[in-house]
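Weekend entry, working from home. Most of the wet-lab plans are on hold until the incubator is repaired, so I used the time to fold the two sequences that have been sitting in the queue since the last round of cloning. Logging both here for the record. First:
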Amino acid sequence: MRSAMRNRLANVRNQIRTPRVTSDEEVLEIAQSLWSQLDTPLSLGLSLLANAGQIEDLLRVEVQPSRYLDSDYSLFRDDVQAVAFLKKMPLKTSIDRSAVAWKKFLDCEELCRQTNDRVRQYREGSGCSPAVQEVLHSAQWKISRWLGELDPKSWALRCRFGPGADLSTKGPCVSPYHKLSRLSSTEDFAEGAAALVFSHPSWARLVHGIDPMESNQQVPSWFDIEVVPGNKLVFVPKTALTDRSIAIEPRLNIYAQLGIGALLRQRLKRNAHLDLDDQAPSQRLAWLGSCKGTVATIDLSSASDTLAKELVRELIPSPWLTAMEWCRSSNGVFTDGSGVKHPIYYQKFSSMGNGYTFELESMIFYALALSCAEICHTDTSLTRAYGDDVAVPVEAVALLEEVFAFCGFEVNRKKSFSSGPFRESCGADYFNGVDVRPYFQKEQLTHVECLFRLANGLRRVAYRRNRFYGCDGRLKRVWDHVVRRVPPSLRSLKGPFRLADRFTPPGQMDVTSDDSYLAVNLDEAMSSLYVSRNRDVQRGWHFASAAPTSRHISADYGDLAGILAYALYAGRDGISAESSPHDRDGNRKVPIRGEGPRRLVLRCFTPEFLEVGPWV
C-alpha cells in the first residue's frame, strides 16, 4: 500500500472511534424527509402525527394489503415503507414495554394451560374433531420417522456453548474459555451435566483444578456444580410498543440443549428435506403465492411462548422426549422493576433462549402443515415451515387453522395472507410478484457505521423499488440527508455492493453490502481518497472500511488446565487455538462480549464492483 494512502487512513481513525451524540429527533427528522418524498396520503398523515408529538399513535398505524387494488403495488409499496421505517425503532414513549411484555407472557402461559387441558382430554378420547385427530396422528408418525433413533454419542458430540449469556455469566465474559468453569445446571439435569463434563478428561481436570501435567493424579467422580431451580425470564427490546421475552438458561442445560437442536436440524435436513439453514424456499413460496394465489403464508403470534408442554409430549417420540425433558428448565423466575421475584412453573415446553426451541417448533409446524396438505389432497411441495413462518397451499388453510386453534397457536391475522396479491415470509414481501420489502430503522445513529447502514439500506430499497434498473430518485434526497451526517473526511469510505443471499424472482436480483462503508457504484467510488487499483491481479480494487474490532482479554496462563480444555474445545469445532490473537507478551487472547474500538480496515475486492445504476 502506498504511503500516501497510509497517511490518509491514519488521519481519520480518531473520527471513527468517536461515538456520536444522538436523539430520537434525529431519526424523526430523517423519517420526515422520507415521508415527504414518498408523498402519499398515509405518509403525510404520519408526518402530521410526528409534528404533533403523537408518537404512540404513529407507531400503531398499520397497512392492510386488502385495501389496495392488485395494480396498486406502487402505492402499497410506498405506504409500507412509510409505516415500516420507525416500526422497530425503540423510540422513547410513555409505554412501559416490560409491563406490556410481562402481561403478554402471562396470557401465553394461560393459553398453554388451556391447551394442556385440551390435549389431556384428547388422550381420553374427547375434545377433538375427527379431522384434527387425523392430522395429529399423521404429524406424530411423520416426526417419529424423521427423527429415528436417538444416539446419545451423536448428541454429546454436538453439544456446544452458545455465543450469549447464561445464568453463570458475569459481565462480558461469554467465550467458551470462560464457560468451561463455574458450571450451573438444574437439579434434574445435574447427573447429565456431570456426564458431559467427564466425557472430556481435560474438562474434568479443569473443574477439579488438576494440573494436566499430573497424568497419574486420579480425577474424582464428582465435582461441585451450582444447582439452580430453573432459568431466568428477562425482556429485551423489540419495538417501541413492547419488549420480547427470552429465558436465560443454566450453563450446562443450554450446552446440552444446543446439542439437541443441532441433531434435530441435521435429521430434518436429511429425512424431511427441511433445511433450516436456508430461508430461500420459504421466500420462493411467498413470491409464488403473491403471483398465482396458490400458496398462503401464515404467521403465528408468540409461537414459542404458546408451545404447550402436553402437545410436545403428544407429538415427540421417546427417547427424544426424555432427552428434551431432561435438559429443559421446567421452572423459572422473573424479577420485576421493584425487585419482587415471581416464581414460574412453565405451562409451555420451552421458550426462546432454550437451545432447541427453534428447531422443535419448526418441526412441529412443518409436520402439522404437511399433514393438512396431504389430507386435503393438495400439492405438498408448496408446504414449508421456518420457525413460525408457515407456507401451505390455500386449500389446506382452513384445516390448518382448525388444527392450530386446537394446539393453542394463535394465527397473527395482520401478518397471515391466503387471498389477495400480498404474501410475506422469512423477510421477503411480495405484492403481485413485486418485491416490496421495506427498510426498518432499528437503532440510534451512535457510530458512523450506523449511518452507513442506514444509507446503504435506503439505497438497496431504492434499487428494488425501480425493479432493479437504477435507483428510485425519490429516495435520493433522503439518502443525501443521511450521507451529510457522516463526517466529511469519512464520506470517502466507499465500496461495492454484492449479490444478496436470498431468493429473487426470475429475471431480478437483489443486492447487499458490508455496512462498514458507503456502498456505491464504481464511478462514484472513484472519487474516494481510499480506493485504488489492485496491482497484484489483473482486475480489482483496494478500498477502506470502518469496522468495530472484537474485544479480547489475555488468557490466564497460570491456569494451564483451562488453556488446554479451551484449545481442545476450539479444535473440536475445526478452529485452531493457535489462530487466536496474542497479546504483546505472546499470551493467547480470548474473545469477550461487546465491540472494541473502531478502526480502518483496508480490503481487497478482486473481481469488480456490482453496479446498482444511477438515481432515476
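Second, folded right after the first finished:
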Amino acid sequence: MKDVVLFFPKPWPSEEMTGRIPYSLLHLYSYLKGDENLDVKIVDERLVSNMPTFINELGDNILCFGISSFTGVQIANGLRIAGMLRSKFPDIPIIWGGWHPSCMPEQTLKNPLVDIVVRYQGEETFKCLLYTLTDKQPLSKVEGISYKHDTKIIHNPDRKLLPILENLKLSYDIIDVEKYIYKMPWGKRTVGMITSLGCPFNCGFCAVATAYKRRVFFRNLDYVFKEIDYLVDKYKIDAVTFDDDNFFVSQKRVKEFCEILINKPYRISWDAGAHVGLLLKNYDDETLKLIKESGCKQLYIGAESGSDEVLEIIGKKATVSQTFEYVRKMRKVGIKSFLSTMVCFPGSTSDDIYATMDMILKCREIDPDLGYRLFYYTPYPKTPLYERAIEMGMKEPENLEEWSQHTLRKFKAPWIKKHFRHQVRFFYFYYFPYSADSLCSYYDPDAKLFKKILIRLYRLIFENRLLMRLAKWRIKNHCYKFQIDAYFVTQGQHLKSLYNRLINKRVDLFYDYED
C-alpha cells in the first residue's frame, strides 16, 4: 500500500488556527476512500505544530505529495514545505492543485518544486493520476494535468466536468472537526459546509465561472443532512455557515432544504450567500419567511459597489437599487443583511469609493444591524478584469514567489492614489463605526487586571464622545478634508493590531488595510 499525502498550507500569516475545513482535500480523500492500494492522509498546516518534524517522520513509502493552493500566502507556505520534502525525498512527485496552479499551470511548473499540476475539478483527474503513478505508466494519457517531461512542459487535454459532487459522501472521520469549530453571533459551535460548487454568473473579479463553466454542481441533500445529523450528534454543532459559491441558485432546492431542516428534532442556525438579482427575482416574501423559520440568521450578498456604472463594468448583473431592496426585505422578514463590497476596480474613478461608502451608510439607515466588509479589488488570473488591470499598469507577477505576495492585503492598484486607500481605511475603522448611535467597543470579561486597564485607557483616548460627534458631522456633511481625527483613530487601531500580532500571535482585521 502506497502513502498519498494531501497538504493544505496555511492561508494566512497569523500563528493561530483560523478558517474552514479544507474541503478541497476532504473531497479528494472521500472520492479515493475504499481503494485498498492507497493510504491517503490529509495534513493541514494550521494543525501541525512542527512541520520539519512531520516531514522527517515520513516513511519511504510515499507515492506522491499533493499541495492545494490559492493565490497568495498559501503559495509561499506550500513552497516552503515542498522544499523540505524535496531535500529528504528528491524523487517523490510533488503535485500542485487548487485555484492558482489551475489558472497558471505553465508558470507554476517552471518552479523546480512543482512536478505535476492537476487543473480545476480534481477528483477524477487525481484518481487517474495516482493509478498511473502506481503502475509507472506514462502521464500522457491522464486528462486534466500539466507536467514536466525532460525540458518541456506538457499540457494534456482538459477533463470534462463531471457531476462528482452529487453523490460524494464526505468522510469527516479523517479530520479533527473539533479544531474547525468557531463562534458566530448566532452559534457557539459553528462549522462551515459546502452543498454545491459553481455559479451561473460571470462577475469580472471572480474565477468561479472559469473553473465550472458557469454550471452549478449540487450535492445530494440526503447526504448533506446525514452529515449535519452527524455533526450535531457527535460535535454538538448549533450553527452552520454554507460556503457555497451561490447557495440560492435553485429555489426548489432551497425550499426543500428548509422544509427538511424545520422537521428535524434539533434546531440549528445558518447563514449563506446569494446573488442579489437572483434572490429578489426568485424568492418572494413567503419563501423568505420559510427560510427564516428554518433557522437562517444572515444572508450576505456581493453588493460590490455603490455605483451602477461600476457594476456594469464588472458584469455584476445587479444594481444599487436592488441592494437597497434586499436590505429592506431582509429587515422586514427578520434576517440579518450583510454586504460584501469592493473598491478600486480598473476603469472606475475615485468617486466610486464615496458612492460605495454612501451606499453602505444608506443601507445602515434601513437596517441599523447591517453587517459589511469592504475590500480593495485585487486582480486574480483567469478573471474577466485581469487583462484590463494589466493594461492599466498592474505589474504581472512573473513566478510563484511573486504570486505569494499578491494578496488583497498587499496589492496596491496603480490606478488609485494612496490618498483614496487611506479613505477606505478611515471609513472602515472610523467613519462607519463612530457615526453609529453607539460604538461597539471591545470587551473581554475574562481579561486580567493589566489588560482591563489597557482597554479602559484605549477607550478613553481613542473611543471618546468627541470623536463620535466629529465622525457623525463629517458623514452628514460629506466633509472629508483635513482628516486629523481619522488619522488619530487609525493610529489607535494600529496599536491594537500590533498588540494582537506581538502578544496574541494573531492577525486582526486592521492588518487587511495597512499600507
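Plan for Monday: verify the second prediction. The two ends are 50 Å apart (CA to CA).
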